[in-house]
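Newbie here. three chains, one complex. Structure please?
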Amino acid sequence: MLTLERVSKTYKVGLFGGTDLAAVRDVSFSLQPGEVISLIGESGSGKSTIGKMILRLLAVNGGAITHDGTDIATLRGSALRSYYRTVQGVFQDPFSSFNPIFKADHVFGLIRGVYFGSASTAEWERKLNDALEAVTLDPGQVLHKYPHQLSGGQLQRLLIARALLLDTRYLVADEIISMLDASTRIDVLNLLGDLKARGLGILFITHDLSLGNYISERTVILRRGRIVEMGATAAVFGQPLHPYTRMLIASVPRLHEKWGQIDAGVRAGSGWAPAPGERCLFHAAVPDGGAAADLAGLAGSGLAELEAGHFVGCVAPTADGTCGGRSASAA
Amino acid sequence: MSLQVTDLRVYYRTLAGDVKALDGVTFGIADGEIMGLAGESGCGKSTLGNSLIRMEGRMRHVGGTVTLDGVPLPIDDQADMNHFRFAEVSIIPQYAMSALNPTRKIGKMVGELVATRGVRYHDIREELERRLELVGLARDVLDRYPIELSGGMKQRMVMVLSTLLDPSLLIADEITSALDVSSQRAVAQTLVEFRDRGFVKSMIVVTHDVSILYQISNTLAIMYAGKLAEKAPTDVIMSRPKHPYTRLLISSLPEIGVRFEEQRLTGIPGTPPSLLNPPTGCRFRERCPIAIARCTDEEPPFVEVEPNHSVACWMAS
Amino acid sequence: MTTRAPSAGAQTPDVVQGPQGVPTVPGAVPVGGRPDPRPMSRRGEILYFALRTKKVIIGLTIIAVFLVLALIGPIIRPGDPDALIGPLGASPSADWWFGTTSFGQDIFAQFVYSLGSTFLVGALGGGIAAIIGMTVGFVAGYRGGWIDEVLNMITNVVLVIPTLALLLVAAAYLSARGVVVEALFIGFTSWPWAARAIRAQTFSLRSREFVNLARMSGVKGLRIVFGEIAPNMSSYLFLTFILLFGGAILIAATLDFIGLGPTSGSSLGLMMYDAVAWSALQLGLWWWFIPPGVAITAIVGALYITNVGLDEVFNPKLRNT
């Protein structure tokens, strides 16, 4: 199991690095094999940062990410290499993920050198073909071409095949289909669904709520680095508890229903802000501002469990993360 | 006031030959109409949008005519077209956020821009401020440099700027792609508001996101491989699409409420054809589930099969 | 010494980004990644353009001429170039193609030997500067953080050192200097701009996802730099070397001319120094300083023109076609 416990990431910005910019604050959740969690957030929400921290591409400032109990920040050398056998990632821009001067099979060559050095050529080719078949790609069509000769969809599938080659158990999919065309998106998405059925645990990072709703069991809504709502996808989309979630859902353009008069609460100014008088359910549940959560690791993380497995955060947390303290009567 | 495009052909001249990005497109837009232009990448929608205002780089106007309000648009002549740009035909470019000159205060830039059309900044300032307020920008934004504004603010600024002189035709080129879902709705609804208040007479909204077009456009035109596949009022396209590409496209879009386990959506197998040497006959035939022999031999014409509903498909007409 | 650094797009691949309607001109690379109809690979494409760009052809031809001259010169005119074998101060004639010096030395013989030494200084000095510049640039660009800060500081220090003053001091201590020492000196002082430029390119390439992918494949840092990043910048590195080579020749000629050159051996700059020292200008012995001057100008100029031409080849956006 991959667990994030109160993970934070702070950058030092400003003149002489005096100011702290919190990209991620107190994020806690866990991912099991065989389930898909959507991590939904707008730009600046920190979702990509979380993905990169799980992949050990960025360092964690606060809290810890553990894999089967081991803190991944402590991994070095061969332990880190075996971590990468279990956890892999695919990123947003397929054309940036491939080195343009090498052919597409270069990415496989890299892992062969590190992980399959002792395998014979025949064995390696067999594994490679199996992985490519699992993502419905024809080896002859893709391996000897340059990235610019392949489509975005094919490239993303190649990267997924690479993860499968390593027998990955967890995949961080960071906006992997946002740069693909509508007709290929659904194919890659369906592929993820099939892999989930085969036991892969997927962290599906996206800003597109419809995609998250299509594929995931659980949903985490992120805003400005903090979790505002978390729970089963049906619950989060069906009965959203947090006003930000409601705004997001209302803003999504539907295909068979017009926006109409629904006020999405979007201010034509500096983005979303809670309406004055907006009731903070978190504060109503934990008036002392702390968080009383049953699951270990969530205590103090600013989330209250209002229904089984359905968590909600404060409507307007203060700058240092405590609850802004709005009860039903607060203005 | 209306736009009429007849058999427009715009090719990109490259070393390898001519890329037939836009290969014979005919349609019309009425006064007050917002037309959505959708399609995959490489279908020619951006080319169409851009060719109506400025031929860039290697774009060559190879054939066809464009008429706006009864006056032919000289789209292949950069100098003549200048007379129309900004005043009659305007565009909100794709990366609008980088369209502002970073070394100029915004107010100054607006002044220079309108001066090229013989309008004094002083005369238009009041209207400018009214419109800024409409989109939620404070007046003092005119005294600021672009770097002081956020991405969303710059986007709105460019929207106001592009429509300041009340053009007849506005082309919005992928203006919601880079935005978050909350800003997308605000921007899309602002576009409609501009039309409703008469700032703009008609609009072409170019995007790959069909769902946004469903929300704001009156008619929807679907392009494929440089040609128009279907054009009809939005409701009609969504409920009774006739072109197989349109049908497959719509059915591949996930909507909130549709889940993988319950209803598995399907994509469109294959990739669009190369526009350097497009195939004979219908360009969609290789991916089309209902293609017949005639589709390979003859290219289906874009004809009106119902009032206001045109399709280019042998099986539909 | 201002040099026109290769444009930043020298090896930015002209790959179209994903299909979100980014308006790019199709044709150079197929939009959306359809199977490429053109038969040429990227290397083939580069060679095709390189051999057709006027600037590259002219530049390379000029350099080739001088290089050939430097190689076969000693064969045409064997023997000690400084031997006093001719008439004093004779103008060019059939016997003495470039005339003779005031001491009766064959200027053509001196010329072809000097050409060789000039190329040597260029290659050695430019090579050393390139190695240092690349090392500093790659490490600073890839690692970032405090290593980057330290290396930046070193780069800045070397950049602002008044090389002339340093050379004067060195000249005072090293009474006997050869061409190699001069090349070393040039190599150790002319690398900062290259380091800066390479650092900037490395920085930008490092943020590309394929570097992250390599990291997630368990590949170590050094291998990533040399296996993923440097090959992506190969044209940029090539152009940088050309500029360092030309720059080294020019610096060497300048130093020689003002008397801070090697104490033994000969070079084009030294020839000009001698010419001025022995009043060739006043005496009207134009054939003594014109050939070396023209040669330096031509070689360095040709290198820079080749650089500009190749820049156009590597970066399609600069092409005029």
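Moderator note: Chain A touches chain B at residues 42-43, 151, 181-187, 189-190, 193, 207-211, 213-215, 233, 237, 247-249, 251-256, 258-259, 264, 266-272 (CB under 8 Å). Chain A has one domain: 2-240. Thread marked as resolved.
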